[in-house]
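Support reply, case 0932

Customer input (verbatim):
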Amino acid sequence: MQSKLQAAINQLCAEKNLNKDIVIEAVENAIAVAYKRDFGSPHQNVKVVLGDDITDLRIFEVRDVVESMTDIDTEILLKDAKKIQPNAEIGDEVFVLTPPHENFGRIAAQTAKHIISQKLQEAEREMLFHKFKDSEGTLLTARVQKADGDVVLLEIDGVSTLLYRRGQIPRERYFTGQRLKVLLEKVESTTKGPQLRITRASKDFIVALFEQEIPELREGVVYPALIAREPGVRTKIAVASEDASVDPVGAFVGQRGSRINAVTAEVGDERIDVIQHYDDKKRMLKAALSPAKISKVEFYEGANGEERVKLFVKEEERAMTIGRQGQNVRLASQLLNLQIDVLTFDGPPEEDEALQEEKKTAASPRGGRRRKVIAEDLTIDTLDGIDPAVAALLSEMGLSQIKQYEGLKPEELAEVGITLEQAEAVMDAINSFINVE
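Our regenerated output:
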């Protein structure tokens, strides 16, 4: 039994890089428990010694030396202790060798086997935990084992984990055997092994994909200063460089788009806009909304003290500025942490009189009706007849002010991502407010 035990422990320690003393101590403690359970008393203090070379299994009862015994399981008289340890004194501990039991060898072997197996599992869990702990914040390659509804079962380096809906790129399809990259956000240690929290939907996932492709990013020469993302739709990333001689946009795009194409290939149809970062907010805002051309930018303080901005654009630039379903202006708003309102402006940027003229009342084409002077701080959520959810959606797209809707047709408004029926209801409410008898 001892030779097999020695071989098993040596193999375990070698393969799993475990401390041999820790494994031996665990085996000794387990055998001691088994001995007390089957051949001794629960109150006994039993010590098992495997020996330095693990070839000599010995079992001792540890007893306190006393002058008068009160507990036969844990004490020994001084005169008896001196037979074992001649220099023993009252209060010492002596180790009394127990006689061998015929069946205990088999029990000890089974116990040792169980403990070794248990230690093996614990060691594997610990090793995996530390392995993944060191990989937090980095990309890992996963293989799809099963796609079931909103949850995808993945296998990463022998560990099965779940990719939940919140971590998935919307509308992305998964199939068994598919290989994909995920960002490891956090690792937690559990009794069943390391629990991995992964994602493909975060902004950090995009940064990690670029980091994999761009040596200058890994070295800190270029870096993402600002980033806004709607997973599966569009990402805007403003990049900068610590070295004035390095073009950060070129570093991110790569020759003939090689680097950005590698990132785009991983996220499917999601569009990625790489733009130059500027410290000047006005310049940064215009870059974020490019290729739309902004005629004029006005920063002001909102009713709640928040910073807001008005963008004045020509009529033909309005749709491009707002973007499909409002995504362009919405991502620019997230990028700069600003509420953006888009207004039509046909005059040259320096002619403020043109804006003042729009506030004057004018005769309606219908003859008997006149138009109100629309204050620029009047918003659509103050009007009756507009669904609050629709008003909130339009405000998020930068269409919060009533003045922005002057001259707009329902068909044009519907292009931002609402239904024609909703657009007609909005325009009816606005026209009823603007036009007076």
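We compared this against your earlier run and they match. Two observations from our side: The longest helix spans residues 104-133. The radius of gyration is 37 Å. Please reopen the case if you see a mismatch on your end.
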